[in-house]
Design goal:
heterodimer, A: mainly alpha, f41 fragment of flagellin, N-terminal domain, two-stranded antiparallel ribbon, 7 helices, 6 strands, 67% helix, B: mainly alpha, two-stranded antiparallel sheet
């Protein structure tokens, strides 16, 4: 085939340009650590990477919900523990009834009154301006005084559940409301009074040194104490459930991130090896062309 | 005629012929790197012999040659390769111009991995999900409004920038149509000159070269090729209408419409559909590819507005009011915005499914639109991912097409250069041959002159 000078130059330019284009791409990859920067460089990879990122966001959201649920449940457990302690103290006070010492009984009655206030304070606990035990009516305290009436406190929250989403279609109820904890409005057992009413009855009985009244109240308090303890158990098992879910989610996020890295990150070792070999190709092409260029009849004429 | 004067004539014909041949070689050497130049060669042929056949003298003693002349200056060019290369250039022009326009779109929709529409939608869903856990929190409501505003702004921004890309494409089309009209005018001028030269019996090689270069560029621009490429009266059609008919030009005209510029023929003022060449590629980007992306964005935006609003209307704000929209109803990608009531007071955001401040279940439902199939069995996030794939695939297809055409074009060019390219070594070798021929002819003149001198000065002299 006849070879003209412009052919030699054109081929040289084409080869050098291709080699330097490949060098540039590899350089970009090594410097950024990404196998591709734009979707056009790898359309299916780009779609897969975007989809994985969305999945990571989804799972990370669920994981955050786990943390929120745990915080809530832990608060609840703390309050239930305090309430249980208070109820035990009330029990002790009831057992300490002394039929012959009205003054001591007055002191016990005052103690029971204080315990009742303390339980009200627990039930009305608010964190960052939200009442935790009022169902969905979180901006108002769940228990309000009923004037001087009977029962002494009314429940003005609702029975709403606050659900935390731990996965697609998977939720856990994270709240208890005061009605459930203290049997307001007969929420747990319609035949019984709420805890604070029982404590009032105990207080009245103590002040009156009414032995029978105190015994009746004691039976009721036992029921309420059992109730609080079983709620603690329920809360504990929910905590376990959430922690298990959280561990699973963390594993899921790690796996997804690994997959994402496989799709979009460049294998640095391979890229650097390719970079080196492209440099050599470039140099070889330039050297070969220069050899061809140097030989010319002009040197001999 | 024979005789010593005949000898001198023969030698003089050689001097002239070799001088012309040298002239052509020198022209080749001067144009060794001129783009589009085809090497030329002086074709030498013998002069008619004397005496002519059929005369009585011819029978006695035979015919004698009378020297050499230049028959023609021949141009080394393979026209079939020219046609092939124009076909490649038309396709290459189309792929390259489409790819470069669409890359502008890609830089808008996917500036970097993780900074695209689907990442933004994820942040939107995240904000609703966070609100669901603490729906009374004013700070979180503000965060949601900010995030939602960013989503709306981004849709509007994308739409605007894609529209402005279409306008940039229009500018490119106008520029190229101007260039086409210039080329057409020049080619018709060349055609005129070629016609005159051919009528005088000469081959206008350099004008052929210049015209071929322009025809290459014309093909690259609009994919129009001449029907009969090697004469003066070439005809070039575009979409069935002539743009060049010999020495007559029919330039294209452009009219602006609200959808972009339209191109009209200079022959019959009908609209011209250009499917190939750089203009074809630009038109495809402007009229097919970019509108498809805008449609997708519209689908995503309007579905987002509708689905969020549908749920939001069933919910209650912190003020106990229900039936409100979150986004302005009927929003599309070009005008999506938050409802003014929401912007005025974040308490209006309906996170609750019942009239109670602590319920965030509606916010959770809206957040779960993340995983809800809403269009053709696909979620909004999946639509956003698919849009990335669409843009990426379109550009990759153009780049692959361009690469294939580039490779084919290089092969063709190499063959063309093999035939038409100037080789310095070759020219130098032939140059020395012509030089020697010239020297030899001069020597013959000297010898004949000396022989004449013998006759004139020394014959019949005592």
């Amino acid at each position: 085939m006849r070879v003209s000078d412009s052919m030699i130059t054109a081929t040289l330019i084409a080869q050098l340009s291709k080699a330097s284009e490949r060098l540039f791409r590899l350089q970009e990859q090594v410097a950024s650590g990404l196998a591709f920067k734009t979707p056009s460089q790898n359309p299916s990879g780009a779609v897969r990477a975007a989809s994985l990122r969305s999945s990571v966001a989804e799972l990370s959201g669920y994981r955050q919900n786990c943390d929120d649920a745990l915080a809530r449940l832990n608060f609840t457990d703390l309050i239930l523990s305090t309430m249980a302690t208070s109820l035990r103290q009330a029990r002790d006070a009831a057992l300490s009834l002394s039929p012959f010492d009205p003054v001591a009984n007055e002191a016990l009655a005052d103690q029971v009154h204080g315990i009742a206030n303390s339980i009200v304070g627990d039930a009305n606990f608010a964190s960052e301006g939200r009442h935790l035990f009022a169902g969905h009516e979180t901006l108002t305290p769940p228990l309000i005084e009923n004037g001087a009436g009977i029962p002494p406190y009314l429940y003005q929250g609702d029975r709403g559940d606050i659900a935390f989403q731990l996965g697609r279609g998977i939720t856990v109820i994270g709240n208890l409301d005061a009605a459930e904890m203290l049997n307001f409005d007969g929420a747990v057992d319609p035949t019984r009074d709420d805890t604070l009413e029982v404590l009032r009855q105990l207080e009245v009985a103590l002040r009156a040194s009414d032995r029978q009244g105190v015994e009746n109240a004691l039976l009721e308090i036992d029921w309420h104490l059992d109730r609080v303890l079983s709620l603690r158990g329920q809360t504990g098992s929910r905590v376990q459930h959430v922690e298990f879910a959280k561990g699973r989610l963390e594993g899921g996020v790690r796996t997804l991130r690994t997959l994402l890295s496989e799709v979009q990150d460049v294998d640095i070792t391979q890229a650097i090896i390719d970079l080196r070999s492209q440099e050599i190709t470039y140099q070889a092409a330039a050297a070969a062309a220069s050899a061809l260029h140097r030989a010319s009849l002009l040197d001999y004429f | 005629m024979s005789g010593i004067f005949g000898i001198i004539n023969t030698a003089v014909s050689a001097l002239l012929a070799h001088r012309s041949a040298l002239n052509v070689r020198s022209h080749n050497l001067a144009n060794v790197d001129t783009p589009g130049y085809s090497r030329q060669e002086a074709l030498l042929g013998t002069n008619p012999p004397q005496p002519p056949a059929g005369s009585a003298d011819a029978l006695l003693g035979g015919q004698f040659g009378t020297g050499v002349r230049v028959l023609t200056v021949q141009r080394a060019r393979e026209s079939f390769l020219g046609v092939q290369s124009r076909i490649c250039q038309a396709a290459l022009g189309r792929w390259q111009s489409a790819a470069s326009s669409l890359r502008q779109v890609e830089s808008v929709l996917a500036p970097a991995p993780g900074e695209d529409l689907s990442a933004l939608l994820d942040r939107f869903w995240d904000a609703w999900e966070t609100l669901a856990n603490r729906p009374e929190d004013i700070g979180l409501r503000n965060v949601l409004v900010t995030t939602a505003s960013t989503v709306a702004n981004t849709f509007r921004d994308y739409t605007q920038r894609l529209q402005s890309t279409r306008q940039t494409v229009d500018l490119g089309i106008r520029t190229r149509v101007d260039e086409v009209n210039n080329i057409i005018a020049q080619i018709t001028q060349f055609n005129r000159q070629i016609g005159v030269a051919l009528a005088e019996g000469r081959s206008p090689n350099d004008i052929y070269d210049s015209r071929d270069l322009l025809l290459d560029r014309l093909s690259e621009l609009v994919g129009a090729m001449p029907v009969n490429s090697d004469s003066a009266h070439i005809i070039v059609y575009l979409d069935g209408r002539p743009v060049i008919q010999g020495a007559v030009a029919y330039p294209l005209s452009v009219t602006a419409t609200e959808d972009g510029v339209e191109i009209y023929s200079g022959f019959d003022d009908a609209a011209v559909h250009i499917a190939n060449g750089e203009i074809g590629g630009l038109l495809e980007a402007r009229d097919v590819a970019i509108p498809a992306y805008l449609d997708e964005l519209d689908t995503i935006a309007s579905t987002l507005v509708a689905e969020v609003n549908n749920l939001h209307q069933t919910g209650f704000g912190l003020d106990g009011i229900t039936g409100r929209d979150f986004f302005l109803a009927g929003g599309t990608a070009a005008d999506i915005a938050l409802d003014p009531a929401i912007l005025a007071d974040v308490r209006a955001i309906a996170a609750a499914a019942v009239d109670a401040p602590g319920d965030g279940s509606l916010a959770l439902q809206i957040a779960n639109l993340r995983t809800t199939p809403v269009v053709g069995g696909r979620t909004l996030n999946e639509l956003a991912h698919a849009l990335l794939g669409l843009v990426g695939n379109d550009i990759a297809a153009c780049e692959n097409g361009a690469e294939a055409q580039q490779f084919a074009l290089e092969q063709i060019r190499r063959q063309q250069q093999s035939i038409s390219g100037v080789s310095i070594d070759e020219e130098l070798a032939y140059l020395s041959l012509s030089q020697r021929g010239y020297e030899a002819a001069a020597r013959v003149v000297t010898a004949a002159d000396q022989m004449l001198g013998v006759i004139i000065e020394r014959m019949g002299v005592s």
